[in-house]
Specification:
This protein is of the alpha+beta class and 197 residues long. The protein has five helices and twelve strands. 24% of the residues lie in helices and 31% in strands. The chain starts with a strand and ends with a helix.
């Protein structure tokens, strides 16, 4: 699969990838995607998704600036989503990736991989140093994630340590990092208050 960056007029398309039989695009998420994204997350992850420890770090926060993406089918339907969130990993700044979700009818079509590659590349381009997530190690290993640097870090709430993974975007970014992850991103209510003013 080839991912090609495109710029189209004033609307930037981050990437286009081919799936059989239809193309899809990965673009920056916008406000009109909220309802479709929530519906997709419910279908792909079920009702228990909001009880995960990762959700404690996302609740009441906005994704990291410029790091929320959706995948759209050729007809415009939202078929995938990924967001990254600002967190502190001990005394280090990092990103928390998630949730990554793809329409269940399109599993193994390359949508999740395209979303991951765009998210990682854009995080690196924006100067972030590390990405953390809780997920399936064999799946995320293909993108460079491992549990090697998370042994002295922990999530708030229950999680499986072997599923707590990291990718350093800069070598040594997590060396010596320890402690419980905490949210550091922009709060939702501050943004809403500013918009109302």
């Amino acid at each position: 699969m080839e991912i090609t960056p495109l710029v189209m007029g004033s609307r930037q398309m981050i990437a286009v990838a081919e799936i059989q039989p239809s193309p899809f695009s990965v673009v920056a998420e916008n406000d009109v995607d909220i309802a479709a994204r929530e519906n997709l997350l419910d279908r792909a992850m079920g009702s228990g998704r909001k009880r995960k420890s990762s959700e404690k770090l996302r609740r009441g926060r906005r994704p990291s600036e410029g790091l929320a993406f959706v995948a759209r089918a050729a007809d415009g339907m939202l078929i995938g989503t990924v967001r990254l969130w600002d967190v502190a990993a001990g005394d280090r700044s990092a990103l928390l990736l998630g949730p990554l979700a793809v329409d269940p009818s399109l599993k193994s079509a390359g949508v999740g991989s395209a979303l991951m590659r765009v998210a990682i590349d854009e995080a690196r381009r924006l100067g972030h140093k590390a990405i953390l997530l809780v997920g399936d190690a064999p799946y995320y290993a293909r993108f460079g994630f491992s549990a090697e640097k998370t042994g002295s870090l922990s999530m708030p709430g229950p999680y499986e340590q072997h599923r707590f993974l990291a990718l350093e975007l800069e070598d040594g970014a997590l060396d010596g990092a320890h402690g419980v992850l905490r949210a550091t991103g922009r709060k939702v209510f501050k943004t809403l208050l500013a918009a109302a003013a």
